[in-house]
Each structure stands twice: as C-alpha cells, then as structure tokens.
Amino acid sequence: MKLLTLLKDLPKHTLTGSGQVKISHLECDSRRVLPGSCYIALKGTQADGHAFIPEAIRRGACAIVAESPCTQEARDGKVSWVEVNDSRLAVSLMGAAWNGHPSRHMSMIGVTGTNGKTTTAYIAHSLLKQSWLRAGLIGTIAYDNGEEITPSTHTTPGPLELEHLLKEMLENGCRGVAMEVSSHALDQERVAGINFNVGIFTNLTQDHLDYHHTMENYFQAKVKLFEQMAADTKSRRKPVAVINIDDAYGRRLAEMFSGRMAVKTYGSALGADFRMLVHHATARGSEYELEYKGKSYLVRVPLIGKFNMYNSLAALAAVICAGIPVRDAIASLQNIPQVPGRLELFTHPGGAQIFIDYAHTPDALENVCKTLKELCSRRLITVFGCGGNRDKGKRPLMGAVAARLSDACIVTSDNPRSEEPLSIINQITAGMPEGRYAIIPDRARAIATAIDQARLGDIVLIAGKGHENYQELSTGRIDFSDAKEVRRNMRIKDEFTQA
Ligand SMILES: CC(=O)N[C@H]1[C@@H](OP(=O)(O)OP(=O)(O)OC[C@H]2O[C@@H](n3ccc(=O)[nH]c3=O)[C@H](O)[C@@H]2O)O[C@H](CO)[C@@H](O)[C@@H]1O[C@H](C)C(=O)N[C@@H](C)C(=O)N[C@H](CCC(=O)O)C(=O)O
Ligand SMILES: Nc1ncnc2c1ncn2[C@@H]1O[C@H](COP(=O)(O)OP(=O)(O)OP(=O)(O)O)[C@@H](O)[C@H]1O
C-alpha cells in the first residue's frame, strides 16, 4: 500500500519526501522493523519510540511517522517522514486504513465502564452469535475471531493488533463484534480507527487511579468513546450510545450527548428507554420485567446478582439497537455461557458453595458480597487481596467492604507484582476493624483454609483473580488458578470426609 493512501484519514500532518513509497508493514516497535516498513514512533511510559528511529532506519524502514520534524539522517537516506501532532492517533487511523476499515462492515458494539465490561461483552457476543451465527469477541479473557478463540493479552489490544483481529473477523464471516473498551485504550487512542455502531456505558466507580490520577480524568477517558461516535461520519448506521442512568456518571454522560447523537438509556430509573421493573433473584439465575417502547417482556437470565441483571439489560439493549428483534434477543439469553471466573460456582459435596469472582474494585466487591449474603443461609467467608503496582487508594476501601458484608475474611495476596505482599495486606486491613480478619499471605493456603472451615450452608467467596491462570510475584509469573486450587481442596476435603 502507498504511504499516501495510509495518510488519507490523518488530521493535519506534514510529509517530507515521497508519498508514493510502497509500505510493506506498519510497525511501532523498532525491534520488529523489516525492510519497507513504516515505523511509527510512540511516546510510552517505559520508553520514547522517537529514540529508536535511527535503529528503525538502519533496519530498512522506508517511512517514519513521528511527533518531531524530519531529521537529516532521514533526508540523506531518502526516507519519507510524516510529522504528526499525535502518533498514537496516527497509528490507529493508519492501522484501520491498512486493514481496509473492517469495523465499517460489521456491527460494532463497544463496552466501557469500570465493572461489567467482560460480562456484558460475553452476553452481547452470545446474543449476536445466536442470531447471526458468527460474531467476534475482544476482551479481558479471550479474543474470538469467529473461527478460533485465543487468550487475550489486553482487555483492548494495541491498534495494529486490534485492526488485524477485526479484519480476520470480517474474513471469517462475522457480522457483529462485541468488544471491551478500557479507559487505558481510550486514553491511548487504541480504538480511534474503529467505527462503533453501539457504545455501552455500564458504570464508573474507583479504579485505575494509579493511571488516571483523578476520577474526573478517568471519566473523561470514557467520554472519548462517545465523542468519537458522535463525530463519526463514516459508519453505515447512525451510532447509538446505550447508557446506564442508574449510575450518576451515566446520567451525566446521557445529558452530555443527548441532542448530539442517538442516546438510549437503561436501568430502573423512570424514563429509561430499556427499563428493568420488578426483579427477582435465585441461586441459579435472575428474572425481571423489561419495559421497552410501551411493551412489557419477562426476561430470564441464568446469572445471579442484580449487577448481572444490569449487564444482561445492557447487552439486550445493545443488540436490539444493532438490529436483533427484541423477542429473539430475550429468548437467546437462556443460552448464554458461564463467563469464566465471574461468580463461577463450585458446589462442594459437603454442602458449602464456593464462588470464584473477579471482583477487584470496592464497588464490585460490595455488589458480589451483597448478592452472596442474600443467598447464604449461614456464613459468608471471603478470601481476597489487592494487586500490587496499581491503585493503592482502593485497598482500605475493599477491606472495609469485605469486613462489613462478610462473616469471616481471609486477607491474602492477589498479584503482588513488585510490592511486598504483607505491605499490601496491611494497607487493606487498615480499613478493617480489629479481630474481623485473618491474614494468610499464601493464596493457595488461604483458599485451602477457607474451604476447610466451610460447612453446610456456608458460602466461600474467592475474589479478585477470577479466570486468571497465573500469579504475578516479584520474582515473575507463576502458574496459579483459583479454580484449580478450589478443585484440589474440594477433593482433599471430600476424601477426608469419606474416610
Ligand atoms: C501503561 C500502558 O498501558 N502501556 C501500554 C502502551 O505501552 P507503552 O507505549 O507505554 O510502551 P513503552 O514500553 O513505553 O514503549 C514506547 C514505544 O517504544 C517502542 N519501543 C520500545 C523499545 C524498543 O527497543 N523499540 C521501540 O520501538 C515500543 O514498541 C512503544 O511503541 O502501549 C502498548 C501498545 O498499545 C501496550 O501494550 C501497553 O500496555 C501495557 C503492557 C499494559 O500493561 N497496559 C495495561 C495497564 C492496560 O492497558 N490495561 C487495560 C485494561 C485495564 C483494566 O480494565 O483492567 C487493557 O486494555 O488491557
Ligand atoms: N454491572 C456491574 N456492576 C458492578 N459490579 C459488577 C458488574 N458486573 C460485574 N461486576 C463485578 O465486577 C467483576 C468484574 O466483572 P467484569 O469482568 O464483567 O467487569 P470488567 O469491567 O470487565 O472488569 P475489568 O475491567 O477489571 O476486567 C465481577 O466479577 C463482579 O464482581
């Protein structure tokens, strides 16, 4: 593809050298540059890609995109140079052009918010698949390109990987895609080349303040998704924002965008376009009445917890906005899969119920503890920790929530990363009343202890790591899975009971 073709959608930029040069690859990592590549220099958190431009030229790059003016070395080597204001925006727009703008040919559902992205995207993906046979999925757990499922590297991958994945989905016959859009991705313009048809906003509560510093910055990162959709002139259908107005930030977002784009609201609040009325929860699922366009529908979902009713409502609203008939979408909800590590139930032969859940924010932990407490006839035993090298402010808040809503807490390690596990644990317990917790830093031992203590009628919640099959320690990653530990300990306890 010619360099000029790749530059067509770029905002103001300055080209030095030929625009006719043929590009063989787009690349942001100098170490992977091949002869004929166009190297795009990004300023990162660990490194500044501009420092690697000479290396990229040495390796044969024939074009450079950078936030700085053309260098003498590039002029001497007849390397084309594109100066831009924002190389992250440039790489996303060029990545979309390189792959033929695949998002313009599929119904794209983007899900953003602090909690519920993975679950909502999973549900929407399943509903799309049941109606349209093939649909793509991009999110924290896995990517499904319509043919093959691979474990994910990011919730929202970098723009070049992302656009390539979308192209594969289109080639594999996907008509729709459900994808998570993280605040990091929005801040770093990873999705700037995507034309979304539907954007879902689930909620906003404290998380990722190590990166965004303030809740307002965090919110503004989410706003970018809807700004992008409101400004989109290339989508085949008018973009729709699907917003939870039971959430205070959701109400603010709906106000900001009504009049600028189509906004459909959901929640139990009066006036919501997709309104959840009477609801009822059981240990195996939930039911609610949906009011939509003056009609009433009974919705049954095989997921527990009020928050999952919101997730299913968001997914329903999104696929209906994408063109799936209401009754088909509601019927398909019966067949959605268990999302790995999201309130995943393991029933112990001795009668206790053990749940693994990915709750790792104060709000998520509060919701999940409240849900389980309602289902519990005896004690709720909560095992949890907090990740290292991430938002520290949430540690005492999570401690306070767990202590308030559980009958017993075991504070353990999550992914301590380079931090001292006991120091993280002490910050968590700073929010807990004395005597309301035990400390067991070794996660495997903490899980074993909780399962050993559990009796008929008890619920054990193992929170924080959900589907993850590793633990990140200061010495590196080790294999670790909450589900494997649970199975192992249930077996041991079972054998012990039978002996
Ligand atoms: C803090 C952060 O988000 N960093 C992301 C960012 O990396 P970066 O630009 O900071 O990378 P860098 O190492 O500073 O390098 C800068 C540039 O120099 C280049 N370079 C570097 C070395 C070299 O020799 N040559 C060279 O060209 C690099 O390729 C890069 O282009 O851009 C990369 C490409 O898009 C991402 O892979 C990377 O994600 C890192 C690995 C990460 O862990 N991100 C997490 C925080 C994240 O994004 N999480 C969210 C989900 C959060 C949630 O909801 O839980 C996600 O969407 O996954
Ligand atoms: N709508 C919701 N509101 C509040 N909490 C929720 C909601 N949905 C899920 N949760 C809680 O948050 C946890 C994470 O859910 P999920 O993985 O769906 O969200 P996420 O936004 O993808 O999270 P992350 O960005 O951290 O991957 C769940 O395990 C559950 O405890």
UniProtKB/TrEMBL annotation:
Binding site for meso-2,6-diaminopimelate: R390, D414, N415, P416, R417, G464, E468
Positions of UDP-N-acetyl-alpha-D-muramoyl-L-alanyl-D-glutamate binding: S30, T155, T156, S182, Q188, R190
Subcellular locations according to the entry: Cytoplasm
EC number: 6.3.2.13
Processing after translation: Carboxylation is probably crucial for Mg(2+) binding and, consequently, for the gamma-phosphate positioning of ATP.
Pathway involvement of the protein, from the record: Cell wall biogenesis; peptidoglycan biosynthesis
Stated role: Catalyzes the addition of meso-diaminopimelic acid to the nucleotide precursor UDP-N-acetylmuramoyl-L-alanyl-D-glutamate (UMAG) in the biosynthesis of bacterial cell-wall peptidoglycan.
UniProt xrefs under HAMAP family: MurE
NCBIfam families: murE, PRK00139.1-2, PRK00139.1-4
Protein name: UDP-N-acetylmuramoyl-L-alanyl-D-glutamate--2,6-diaminopimelate ligase
Organism: Akkermansia biwaensis
